[in-house]
Amino acid sequence: MTPAFTGQEKELSREECDEHLREQGTGVLSLASDDEAYSVPISFGYADDVVYFVFLGYAADSEKGRFAETTDRACLVSYDVSGKFGWESVVVRGPLREVDDDEWDDLVDAIEDNAWYPSLFSEADPQSQIRGFALSTEDVSGLADQRGT
Hints:
CATH class: Mainly Beta
Number of domains: 1
CATH architecture: Roll
Mean pLDDT: 85
Radius of gyration: 16 Å
CATH superfamily: Electron Transport, Fmn-binding Protein, Chain A
CATH topology: Pnp Oxidase, Chain A
Low-confidence stretches: none
Shape: globular
Structural class: alpha+beta
Helix content: 10-25%
Number of helices: 4
Strand content: 35-45%
C-alpha cells in the first residue's frame, strides 16, 4: 500500500535543503555498478554545495569500495522524522569522486561541522584506512510536512 500525501506537504527551497544538509549530517547513500544498486547509511559533512563523507577501514574487495569506484552519479537521501506529520527529506544527486589530498582539509572541516560522528578520525587506525569522497550537489530537492512540529 502506497502512503497517500495529505496535501499539507511542501517543497523545500534550495536554501531550506541546504539548511537541512548542514544540520542533519546523516543519510543513505546509493551507489551503482552496471545494473546493480548498493545503499549504505553514512554520516556526512556539507559545505559549499558539496557533501563530504568517508569510508573507514574497509577491505580492498569490499562492496562499498567497489561500488564507489564504479559510480559516476550517486544519490543521497537525508531525512528527519519527528512524527506522522513532522518530517522532511532531501534528495541529492550528482557526480561522485574521491577527494584529492589538497581537498582533505575541506572534507575534515565539513565533517567536523555537522557529521553525526565527527570524532571518527581519532577512531581510525592509520589514516591510510580512510578514503574521503565528495558528492557534488548537481540536483537537490526536498519535501516536508511540518504540521507536527
